[in-house]
């Protein structure tokens, strides 16, 4: 099978790394790809705009792809999957309408209401709302304010704060960018990311994971795209994944099918597990980053087969997925100044930089034999072990051997889970 993966980041590096080990894959292409993927796939830096449907279709034709896998949300929301399907390609990723589940939080709320899915109470604030209207809306929420950018924000558009002034500031910033705001009630309980392969009404969950969104240890600092993750979740109640599938993911898939926009691809449910069980924080229309790097490192079954079955409407025929009986912890090495203004152009050193089983590249470029930082999240290091403690030890040992001037990482990824401090 010839597979074309669209994207450049750590999530796509994880997808490429797994596909490169699958026996069904005869040719692997990544576009634009990255220097770090070049050892595993033919990279296509000539793809100028991954969100331009014509450019992506042209490339898929050039490489005669049997399957196209669209990694990031922007091309999906822009309709790249629709264009590929119209040109006759099997595609892993939802069409433009179904991708609204991530592209518009208001759309996602509407789907959830129709599907009877438990989620936060929400209110929409359009750009142009007066100071009095913003104040009155905030009065109906709090004391914890959840202020979301109702557009694509790369996982960074949410501010959760007890500080009313900070909440107002974020409302104004989102409005200044021309986007509506969604105010939500605060959902308590530990967060879960559950990725499901979805093909119409068929839903197959992957391992549950947990992201760490704040920049610094002890959940201090600003929200980021994600500073680390681990999988699976030892604290999740027995039957928890099935409950999320039954109460959240399948009802949403059924509602999308009922609307005539059936979902095909990866449905990412971001949830909080509170007193009443799972409640949806958000949906994404693609694999999550950084959770994917941890989850896929444990997948024993063929990813190529699973993605192809989803893309071709045969998910119901897929054999149950097999997983390593282990834990994976993934820690992001970020550039100094991330997320506000990451510094770039620093040389990376470390023996493991080209070992994709342990180091996945998110924001690097290569000159000669040297990698340089080229993004906010630079690397994602993955460690595995029979316990979370063992996986944590493995990941931090690799990180100890990598140098990035000014770079930083959290030292507490999965620490609470390892200590048994997460309870539901
Ligand atoms: N893990 C957050 C995201 O992928 O949006």
Question: How would you sum up this structure, described in words?
Answer:
The protein is of the alpha+beta class and 424 residues long. The strands form 6 sheets. A 5-stranded parallel β-sheet has the order 3-2-1-4-5, sandwiched between helices. A 5-stranded antiparallel β-sheet has the order 12-15-18-23-20. The N and C termini lie far apart (43 Å). The longest helix is centred in the middle third of the chain and has 19 residues. A hairpin with a 2-residue loop joins strand 16 and strand 17. The protein is globular. The chain is built from 13 helices and 23 strands. It binds glycine (GLY).
Give the overall average pLDDT.
96
Low-confidence stretches: none
First-last Cα distance = 43 Å
Radius of gyration: 20 Å
Shape: globular
User: Can you give the helix content as a percent range?
Assistant: 25-40%
Q: How many distinct beta strands?
A: 23
Bound molecules: glycine
| Count of alpha/pi helices | 13
The largest beta-sheet arranges its strands as 3-2-1-4-5
For the largest beta-sheet, the strand count, sense and barrel status come to: 5 strands, parallel
Strand portion: 25-35%
Q: Structural class from helices and strands?
A: alpha+beta
Organism: Corynebacterium massiliense DSM 45435
Keywords: ATP-binding, Ligase, Nucleotide-binding, Purine biosynthesis
Cofactor: Mn(2+); Mg(2+)
EC number: 6.3.4.13
């Amino acid at each position: 099978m010839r597979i074309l993966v669209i994207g450049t980041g750590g999530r796509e590096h994880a997808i490429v790394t797994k596909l490169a080990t699958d026996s069904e894959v005869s040719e692997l292409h990544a576009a634009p790809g990255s220097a770090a993927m070049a050892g595993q796939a033919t990279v296509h830096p000539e793809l100028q705009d991954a969100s331009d449907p014509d450019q992506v279709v042209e490339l898929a034709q050039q490489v005669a792809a049997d399957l196209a896998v669209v990694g990031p949300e922007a091309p999906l929301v822009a309709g790249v999957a629709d264009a590929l399907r119209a040109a006759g390609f099997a595609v892993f990723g939802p069409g433009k309408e179904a991708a609204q589940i991530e592209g518009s939080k208001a759309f996602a709320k509407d789907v959830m209401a129709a599907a009877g899915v438990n989620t936060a109470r929400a209110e929409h604030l359009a750009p142009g709302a007066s100071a009095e209207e913003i104040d009155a809306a905030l009065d109906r929420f709090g004391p914890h304010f959840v202020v979301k950018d109702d557009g694509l924000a790369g996982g960074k558009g949410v501010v959760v704060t007890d500080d009313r002034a900070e909440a107002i500031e974020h409302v104004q910033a989102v409005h200044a960018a021309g986007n509506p705001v969604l105010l939500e009630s605060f959902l308590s309980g530990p967060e879960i990311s559950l990725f499901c392969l979805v093909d119409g009404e068929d839903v197959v969950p992957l391992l549950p994971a947990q992201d760490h969104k704040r920049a610094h240890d002890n959940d201090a600092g600003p929200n980021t795209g994600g500073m680390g993750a681990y999988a699976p979740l030892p604290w999740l109640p027995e039957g928890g994944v099935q409950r999320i599938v039954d109460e959240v993911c399948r009802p949403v898939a059924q509602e999308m099918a009922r609307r005539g926009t059936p979902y095909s691809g990866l449905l990412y449910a971001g949830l909080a597990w509170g007193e009443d069980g799972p409640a949806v924080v958000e949906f994404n229309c693609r694999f999550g980053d950084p959770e994917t790097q941890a989850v896929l490192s444990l997948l024993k079954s063929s990813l190529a087969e699973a993605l192809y079955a989803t893309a071709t409407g045969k998910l119901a025929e897929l054999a149950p997925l097999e997983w390593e009986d282990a834990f994976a912890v993934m820690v992001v090495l970020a550039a100094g100044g991330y997320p506000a203004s990451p510094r770039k152009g620093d040389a990376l050193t470390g023996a493991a930089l080209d070992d994709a089983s342990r180091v996945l590249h998110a924001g690097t470029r290569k000159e000669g034999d040297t990698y340089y930082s080229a993004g906010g999240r630079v690397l994602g290091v993955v460690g595995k072990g029979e316990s979370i403690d063992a996986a944590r030890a493995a990941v931090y040992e690799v990180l100890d051997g990598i140098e990035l001037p000014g770079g930083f990482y959290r030292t507490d990824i999965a620490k609470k889970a390892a200590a048994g401090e997460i309870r539901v």
